[in-house]
Structures are given as C-alpha cells and as structure tokens.
Predict the structure.
Amino acid sequence: MKKETTHFFEQLVETNKSKIYRICQIYAVSPVEPQDLFQEVIFQAWKSLPQFKQKSSIHTWVYRITLNVCLRSKLKFDNDKTTRLEAVQITSANPTEDDGNLKILRECIATLDDTDTSIILLYLEEMAYKEISQITGLTENHIAVKMKRIKRRLLECMQPKL
Amino acid sequence: MKEQDLQHIWKSAQTTNQITIDMSQLTQQFKTGMERREQIVRYRDGRETIFATIGILAYASIAFYVPFTMARIGAILVSLSLLFLIYKLRTNRKSLHTQHLFLPMQEQLIEQRKFMVNQERLLNTVLYWMALPLFISYLIFIWGVGDPSGYVLPDLILEIIPVNLKSKIVWSTLMALILGYIVWMNKRAAVVNWQPLIKQIDTIITNLKKDKL
C-alpha cells in the first residue's frame, strides 16, 4: 500500500473509530466482543481501500463495511477464531450521567430485527435518508416508511423505562 | 421524549469508550494476524486439490504402464474425473468468494446468499459431479484388468492392480462404500452447515424488503 493511501487510511480510522465502535457494540453477541467486530471492520476497510472508487462518500463506504461485517457476524458464517490485535486498545471510561438512558436505548434497539437495527443506527448517527439509502440499497421512500415504524417502536419501548 | 433525544443519548456513547490505535503497529499486525487467518482458509481450499493432483498423476502413470485397453481407458477416466473434481472445487472455493463488503447492504446480502446456495448445491450434488464419474471410471479400470502373466510390468503396478475376481469384488465394494460415505457426509454438511444460514439470510433479506410501498 502506498504511503498516501496509508495516511488516508489512518485518517479514516481516526475520524470514524467512535462511530464504528458504537455500531459494533450493538451487534456484538457473546462470544464475539465489540472489539473483535471493530478490528474486523478496520481490517476489511484496509483490505477494500484500493477498491474505493469515490462513487460514494468515504463515510458512506465505511458505514457499508461496518454494517456488512456486523451482519455477517450474526450469520456465523466465519467460524475462524478472531485474532486480538494489540495495536487496538479499547478501555471504558468513567460512566456518564447519560449511561442509564444509553443502556435503555441499547436494550430497546436489541428488540429490533437486524435490518431495522442497521437503519436506526444510521439514523442515530445523524445520517440523511439519502445516505441511508446509499448504504442499505433501499429507496429513500422505503427508508422513510421503515424509519417511521422503527422510531415509533423504539419510543414505545423507551418511554415506560425512563 | 422526542426523536432528537434518541440521537443525543446515542452520541453520549462516544464519551464512555477510549479507543487507542497504534497505527504503525496496526497494518503490521493485519499482515501477521488477520491475513494469516485468510491464508488458512486458502490452505483448506487447496488441500483437496493436492490429494486429487496426486491421484491424477498416479492414475496417469497406471494408464501409461497397464497393457489392457479397458483398464487404460478406466485409468484415464479416473484421472479426468479427478481433474473435473479439481475444477469444481477451484471454481467454488471459499477464498475465491467475493466479499465486497463495501457494497450496499441489500446487494451484499444477495451476494452472500448466492454464495451459500452455490455451496449447498455443490454439496448436495456431489453424487453426480464426483462420486458417480469416479466410481464408474474406477469400475471400468478394475474390471478391465486382465491376466498380467504374459506382460512385463513394474512391480508397483502389479501390486496395485486387482488381478483376480475376489480382489476386484473387494475393491469395487470398498470404493462404493467410501464414495457412499463421502456423498452422505456432504449431504449432511449441506443440511447442517448451509441450510440454517440460508434460512437466516432469507429472513434478513425479507425483513429488509418489508414496508416497501
């Protein structure tokens, strides 16, 4: 890989690492840890980078890889053990006051199916319907209909718990 | 609670985790750790090819030395059957499977499904593309072997070829049992390994398509 590409990749990871990890935390189901998924996403992004054609924005591209890797892990398609990389260190900081709400939100997201989860996660990452459409491959109208139902379900789940 | 509050809560997760990545180490560890894992998959894909290649060479040699026309045709057919086996395995190998994880989710799921269905079909049809051609070729070879007493043959060939009726029956039965077992194992693998995955991916695709106007 060329030096400029490596630099570009480093910047890409630095900019997107928190977003990627947030999504991985939702999809990780024991024995797969969020860190394993996170590493896999970064690795797949690194491998796929030479194929990035700039037809979509780099962030859309990263989200596609993240969600595809996360969904694939649900399919238990790869039985190979994950290699834990020392270069990636993730530590939990002190809990914030929002942690309680965050826990409830995660619990409610867990009640959704995998595809609804993907769509709501993109919404929570403040992505426009157009971008969500580019990531999922669904039309904007389809996303809008889905989103309405998913948000309603999520709010119905959260409100009694708050 | 408003919809925007959901986004605020979600973003708060950013502050609860510290992610440190040593970039200089990362790409190096990709090569030593993650890529090695993919090499193992490639090796697994290549294992059957190695055995089949050995078989091809062995039966090609037998075809060269054996003086009986029928047995020679059988040995050539065994080599060709093994060659076809290599072709099937190489065109369907897991390491060749396009991952293209940067594709839109729907497209990627459809690609994954296509691969899984192909793998399931490959395992389910092993009787037709592997077991039967190999068995028929082997039978032609075994039953085509005549009396070698009038010929000068290498000792190794004389040891390998079944000359009398009893050994012909034993080898034919043994081959039928081995191939039958392989067919059964493959069919079982299709049911146990691939069918649940196809069902699972079908559910995901159906859920994704849900709510379409």
User: Anything to note?
Assistant: Residues 3-27 of chain A form the longest helix (25 residues). Residues 3-161 of chain A form one domain. DSSP finds seven helices and one strand in chain A. Chain A has a mean pLDDT of 86.
